[in-house]
Structure formats: C-alpha cells, structure tokens
Amino acid sequence: MNTRRLLLLAALAGLILAYFVLDLGRFLSLDYFKSQQQAIEAWRAEQPLKAALAFFVAYVLVTGLSLPGAAVMTLVGGAAFGLFWGLVLVSFASSLGATLAFLASRFLLRDWVQKRFGDRLRAINAGVDKEGGWYLFTLRLVPVFPFFVINLLMGLTPLKTRTFYWVSQLGMLAGTLVYVNAGTQLAKIDSLAGILSPGLLGSFVLLGIFPLIAKKVVDALAARKVYARWQKPARFDRNMVVIGAGSAGLVTAYIAAAVKAKVTLVEKHKLGGDCLNTGCVPSKALIRSAKLLSHIQRSQEFGIRDAKAEFDFAEVMERVQRIIKTVEPHDSIERYTGLGVEVIEGSAKIVSPWEVEIVLNGGESVRLRTRSIVIATGGRPFVPPLPGLAEVGYLTSDTVWNLRELPRRLLVLGGGPIGCELTQAFARFGAQVTQVQQGPRIMVREDPEVSELVVQRFRAEGIAVLLNHHAKAFVVDHGEKILIAEHQGQEVRIPFDALLVAVGRVANLSGYGLEELGIAAKRTVATNEFLQTTYPNIYAAGDVAGPFQFTHTAAHQAWYAAVNALFDPFRKFRADYSVIPWSTFVEPEVARVGINETEARERKIPYEVTVYGLDDLDRAIADGEAHGFIKVLTVPGKDRILGVTIVGEHGGDLIAEYVLAMRHGIGLNKILGTIHIYPTLAEANKYVAGNWKKAHAPQRLLAWVGRFHAWRRG
Question: What's the pTM?
C-alpha cells in the first residue's frame, strides 16, 4: 500500500474513531432531535443558509464515512426543512456522500479485494458488466444490501464514477421522498395524541410498503424494456406451452394440467427424453445384467463351488429395449392426453414472447399464442473436436444402445458418472475396457478417497484406468484404430476396436428461437431464482437450465417453473437447491447429498467429519459386500448435517434418510434415536450417528457418573 493510501486510511480511521470515542452518535437520534427541535427550528429561521449548509456537510460526512445515522438524518431533514428543501438537501448530500464512500472504497480496496476475492465478486461484476447503471438502480430502488454496503461494494466493481453518481441520485430519490415525508410528520408531534394522526400513520405505512411498491416498479420497468419491440396479443390460445417432453417438460405439463390450465406439450422425438430412452432406464437395466454376471463370477465367495453363465450380448441389449418399452407407457402420449395435456409431435420455435410456431412431424405448421412458455429441451452428449474422431467412429450415451455385438476392446473417453457406469458394465460382460481420463482422477466431484476406492475396484476387475492422459488425436494405422494421448510429456498410443465418448453433456439451445429473441444462453439458458429467462413469462427447467443434470432435479425445477409461470404475478417461488442428492451407480455405489470435504475446504466452511466403515456392518458382511464407508460432515460441536457421502452397496438408497434429515432439519441425535431393523444396511446410518455421539460424549459428566456408580457399590 502506497503512502497516499496509508494517509487516507489513517484520516478515515481517525474520523471514525473520533465518532465512537466522542459518542457523536448521541446527536443522531430522534430523541435528541425532539429535545432540541425548537432550538433547531429557531436557528434555521434566523440563519437558513448556515443551517442548511451545516446539515448538508454533516450528512455528507455521515454517509461518506459509512457511519450509522443516515436514516435518522433523513427524517430530521424533513422535520427541520420541510418536504421540498429537505428532499433537495438530503438527495444531493446522500448522493455526494455515497460517491465519496464509493471512491474511497475503490482507491483503498478494489485492487486488493479483486485480486484475492475476485471469484466471490464474479456475480456482482457480471451484473455490472451486463446491466451497468440499471444493476445499481435496482439495488438503490429495492436495496438488497444496506445503503452503505452498496456504496462500498460498488467501489470494488468496474462501474464508472459518473454513472454511480447519477444513478444513485435518481435511484434513491423515491426512497428519500418517503423518508423526508415521514420526517415532516414527526415534526408535528407535540403530544401522545399526535402519534395516532392520519398523516403520521400514513407515512409509516408508506415506509413499510415502499420496498414492495419499488420492487413492482422495478419489475415493470424491466419488463417494459424487454418487451418494448413486441406486440402482446389481446387473447391467448393456451395458458402454457412446454417445449420438450423429458423429465422437466413432462412434470411441468402434468402440474399445469392438474391445476386446470390449458397446456400444450411439444416433443419432436420421443416422450420421456434422455432418461427413458438413452439414459437412466437403459443404463440401469444394463448395469443389472452386468452385476448378475459379476456375482456369478464371485460364486466361490458365497460357498458355491462352481457357477457359470452363458449369454448373448445381443439378447442383453434386447432386454434393455424391453425394459424401455415396459416403462414407456408411464411417459406416453396416451397417458398425458388422459391427464388433460395436449401433446403435439413436432419441432417448436419461439417467434415472440407469446407465440410458438410448431412444424408438425407431418410437415404442417401451426402457431400458438400462449401466456407463458417453458423451455425444457434437455441436453445431449458433448463430442470434443478431436482430429480423426469422425474417421474412427464413435459411440455416445445416446447411440451405445444400438450395439448388438460386444466390442473386444472398448475405449471409454471420460471419467464422469456416465463414463464410469458404462466402463464397469461393459467390462463385466467381458470386453477389454480402457478408460482414459484427462485429469488426475475419475469422478472429480467426489472426495479423492472416493475416486481412489472406485479406481481400485475397476482395476481389480481388469479395467485399465489411465489417468492424466490427454487425448490429442485419433488415427487408423494399418486398419487398427488408435488414440494418441499425451502422458507426462510422452506420446502414448492406445489401440481399440470401439470408442465411447463420455466427456460431459451440453444443453440443447439451437433451433428454438432463443438467439432471435435475445434470450441469454451460453452453456445453458440463463435464468433467475424463479427460473425466468430474459423474458419474465418464458421459463427454463431441466438440463437446459442447469446447474444440475439429474432427472430428479429436472422434475424438482419443473414444479417451480409450472407454478411460477401459471400464477405470477400473484405468487411465485424461488427454486430451492439447498438439498440435492445424487448417485453414481458403479459398484460400489457412490451417493452424496450436501457438501463433501473438498467443497467445504474450497468454500472455507468449518466442519467435523464422522466416518463409519461398512466392513464392520453385520449385514454387509453377510452379503459379501463389506467394503466402503459413510462419511458425514457436521457443524463443529453440533449434530446438524452439512453433507453425506456414501460409498457402498445400495448407497443410492441409503442416502435417502440423510436427504430427509437435511431437508427438515433433523440432526444425528434424532437418527441415533430411531429404530433401524436388524440386520439391514440401513443400520449403518445409525452407527455413524453413534460414532458422532461417542466423539461428543460429555467426558466430565461421565467421570462424575462413574464416581456415582462407585459410591453405590460401596
């Protein structure tokens, strides 16, 4: 820090210290003003310019130094100078003082804060970059943070000083007017009866409802700006049009129909989306068959001398299709039509905020006018632009289900949940599987020991897991397909017969009119906490909205999208992501809810860890699945659960107890006091709570209890 910064910091610190040491705050109270009201009014009458200047300077100092008392001084301004002059003095003094605080924050702190905490300011910086003065205007008109916090916080952003001043002047004007008016009414109180005067009561009512009014005004101004170039229809054909019939779209349409709204669901391919047709359902069906084979191979562990299984891979894949067909009626056109949903098969494009054009699969075109639109177009596998990829051919999680012949050598590119699940499944069918991961470990969202345990299991099953291998290109050399990768600076050539690309998913954003309407969408459609897009009547849910890519979170978001779209502006709800569970269905299963140790350290959240090893659980031993653990993170010294990771048999089922506990504020003490059936895997949840209780046993009290029992023995 240079000399000028040090001098300014010392001066500001001195002024603030003097304020508290000299107890100057006593002069900034309504009690003091009422006691001196007559003297202040007399001084103002005799020397109006001096009184106004003194008040102006004092107000600038209070706001510039971010001292408490600005609200009281605003009331005093109205009481001493009246509505008009009080408004003029306070408006300009508050804006000038706020600008001084803004400049001081920028001069003293911006470089240091941005350097060290830039990631935490990313959202605010993005808001300023995107909306500029409007972002500050909304904060001023409907302050999310206190007045002084906004001043200091904006000083850390790239916002221009002149923009900060005039936006503050304008944005604070309405709120200042309300407070000054209240001050004029307070000045009239000369008895207890004055408290009940209509003017004062009306002023206090206005103070209370002003934030609500201001929020409505801000929303109306924002909506007017967004909808300016569009003509809103006088009537609508539908209450809602839902684009996409995956998990999010189906649930949204179902909820809308359940509350008697007229809703149209548009799908160009198959109802059920990825989950039914290419994701959750087929993958779990395949994993089940693969797990049966693994158990047969382990027959001697269960006292069975010899067990064999003959299978045809094509028949296994046909079983997968049969499972899809069995589940399909749950998501069929017939079912949803029966529920009151109009289902249209075709491609939808949003042509205005209230109009959707649909090209039917038969070629015809229709245009629907709707009050609200929900975008639920899902996602698709991401295919990296690697040289030679098209030449060697590849499979994804969408196309792998077309296989009818087991690849002899399968190369899996990617170490996420999808890549890991299919890696193990194909290996158990007898394929020679090589999994290539660019980073130092697979399943990077989990703790390192979780990743390591899964890797150990994979390698024990004959899977070649290649970490820190960066894929560079694909070639065909003498008829053999080869991946060229880089590992520790060396070129590695990995031959294969079939390639499965599983490096993540991307949202389906193209072809729906988003770009033409100016709806913000990069990796996903940008939404606010109510799942609204740039246009308040257009919502997004599911994979296309993020931040999660799970079927259950898509359904979770669908409720908010449906209810908000149908009942806004009368009622709407913020989407709640506080307790989101998920599971990766490898063996051992990996399930999680809340934060893990890695996230807690990154976010600097204090925590305690309690672990219970499943190798000690009677049922796990009896089942031959005595491996894995349950790890619970709690608030230090308390039983409140911050997060749980389960690695073990049926981890995805066992996690449900903790999801319920976290959602409803149940701690480990209550889980410990709950009866669990013996012998079951669920007992592990009680035992980990017991381990926590042992670690937090009141040792001093127990020592006295020991003495009590010794006394009773004589």
Answer: 0.77
